[in-house]
Fold:
Amino acid sequence: MHIWVDADACPGAVKEILFRAAERTGRALTLVANQTLRVPASPRIRMIQVPGGFDEADKYIADAVQPGDLVITADIPLAAEVVARHATALSPRGELYSKENIRELLDLRNFMDTLRNTGVETGGPAAFGSRDRQAFANRLDRLLR
Structure:
């Protein structure tokens, strides 16, 4: 299992958890972003910088992911692509995307996007907190076992 991270908007706390998990389990970890990110010096951890532009990191990950890989992303369309490719997608808040829930999540995301485009103020997600960090760490641990 290769671990891929849609790293542009991934919280730092989640990256730190992933760095430790890669070292502990010996799994390869690749962060993909359109900006340079600092990663620990490790043969297991690498960073790929893609060109700036809309969804470039998502496209790179979608093309590279293999069945059985794990992708960390908050991007629902990318998660849908990952699930379609028989890989596992996990949000930085610990929500597992699956073939059972991805259609509903994608429909909700598209509905909210439509509302925003018509001028409706929908607000954003709650701030990332310690509960989110713990939920992510717990789910990641279960997936890596």
